[in-house]
Amino acid sequence: MDVRIISSLQTRDLRFRVLWPHKESIDHCFIDIDDREDAFHLATFDGDRIVSVGSFFQMPTDKIDSRSFYRLRAMATDPEYRGKGTGRLLIEKAKQILQEKNIDFLWCDARVVATGFYSSLGFQMLPEPYEIPIIGTHYFMWLPLDV
Question: Which domains are present in the chain?
Answer without folding.
Answer: 2-108 (3.40.630.30)
